[in-house]
DNA sequence: CCAGCACGCTAATCCGTATTAGTGCACGGC
DNA sequence: GCCGTGCACTAATACGGATTAGCGTGCTGG
């Protein structure tokens, strides 16, 4: 008997009870007033064992029950290697916690890609197949996020997001960048360049904000340059890079312009491959990606367990990597 | 507060039609004999636009009895980096095909780990959550495989497996190893060592079998040494490594023993990190991992679509990487 | 001896969508 | 005036599982 999936009706017919009884035995709810004779229960359980029956995900979700499935949504394919190096650590953390929680992971690979990015609400929104969802990605559409909140879908974002009551576990970029600026100032730097978009992704905006705040409070001159070549030509003693993959390029360009003494600092983890090899001992900080993934999975499970619980909004500290590319300014 | 999702019933009430009409407008099926007046259709479409309604996957999937979920089962955690480098390419292929097929991937992270490996039939078998399953892993328990077949679970294995009617997409290791042996013999090699377990994993057994067959038919002397140090001490002109990660170690050991002229060849892809850095231009062959994953997903989808279809049993050719570590024997 | 109750179970309903049989209506032809 | 026909749509049902009201049976207390 190959082909059709086994249903509760099948089990019911096999054991001579009703479908409702099978459901009751399966869920074994003490609080509901219904009771099943131990003997009947055993007969049903035996049949379930013998057939390898598992409740259908879709049927259960339709009846609004959970399946111990955590969804993972990324705005790019997860596995291809360009993105993999960046996403990998998050996934390690997510997988680790999922295993501990006894949950399976559903990767939404089917979501259609429109204009180069996946969209949640294009075509089927498959998110509802999972009990809840972890969102990964540099920037996530504001409208889509709001809609997720509005529809009451349980989710946790990896990375801070703007918007009220959006639950997230993020990295404290502002503090980390601030610390790097203060360190630079302590080493005699007074004119600093920030290279990168500075937005609209929250992770970029947070970095720029930390930069601006620290410059303000230390009295250093901080300038935001979207493009590296502008910063290289400017009169700075240190360049802070939003994208660490640009570090090799930056150092090469500075040498080319006869300014090998200018410091280069990176703000986080590379999100793409470097064109020019990066220096080994780049001064930078580490985003706690594995921990972010772990905690996001953890919080999602909590949220699924108790939908009324307060949404998590937590920033994890980044760890400074000393390196050798931030040096003292000589006068 | 959380709002309820919008359903077809809502749209129907808003526009004064029936739920069925909404469904019909949405799916716009020309072949079904049903027709809707352009004006009504427009009214419904406007309401859908205005509300941002998107069909609920759960309802849809329930109606057509397919979850569009492909399960992925590995005998180790997928993401941790030790295993990641090896599994990654398979997953890229699987993900790619899943996306094309409009399927999501369910990673069975919940499966309990017993004695260091995951077991399919331990605890409640969640396999049935997916429409079908892809199995990944060096060696898969024979008993568990037989049970999968017996219980009629739709599945496809990545890598050849012993056992009747086990569907797989594997790599043709025997042919690839045979080709390498013949190449070596053509370069004057007569005494070859095969280093590795040679089993019980099918991928290892296939390599050893290819080695034995090719030695036999070329008249070369082929010896199987489970351990590298044995092979290094022996009187061979070439060493074939089951595990490419051992290549650096092998070359170092040969130099240490004053035999730098001995050729070293690797049979496939490394499954772990090297202790000693491997040479850049190692002579070896490539396992078509991405393609194997792609085809496994493809065949699984076909199997799910038509459970009566013949199980796939296919070996894909490996590509030779010329390299520089297999050289001619000088007399 | 019967009311009342506890037990063990089932029938019915709901969730959201897809599909099909069928219904009501208008219009045309004779 | 009546039948036939085609159009536009709806009612009903299925899908798999959870839940609840309620039904029949057997036992107990008065």
Keywords:
6-stranded parallel β-sheet; homodimer; alpha/beta; 6-stranded mixed β-sheet; 331 residues; 40% helix
Describe the structure.
2 copies of one chain form a homodimer. The first copy, chain A, has helices spanning 8-15, 19-27, 38-51, 57-62, 81-101, 142-150, 173-186, 202-218, 228-233, 247-256, 289-305, and strands spanning 69-74, 104-107, 113-114, 117-118, 132-136, 155-158, 168-171, 191-195, 221-225, 238-241, 263-266, 283-286, 313-316, 319-321. The radius of gyration of chain A is 26 Å and the shape is elongated. In chain A, α6 links the parallel β5 (132-136) and β6. The first copy, chain A, has 331 residues and is an alpha/beta fold. In chain A, α1 (8-15) crosses α2 (19-27). The model of chain A has no long low-confidence stretch (mean pLDDT 87). Chain A has a 6-stranded parallel beta sheet with strand order 2-1-5-6-7-13, covered by helices on one side. Chain A has a 6-stranded mixed beta sheet with strand order 9-8-10-11-12-14, sandwiched between helices. Chain A has a two-stranded antiparallel ribbon with strand order 3-4. Chains A and B meet through α4, α5 and β2 of A and α4, α5 and β2 of B. β2 (104-107) of chain A pairs antiparallel with β2 (104-107) of chain B. Chain A binds a DNA duplex (30 and 30 nucleotides) through residues 5, 7-9, 17-24, 26-27, 29, 32-37, 40, 55-56, 58-65.
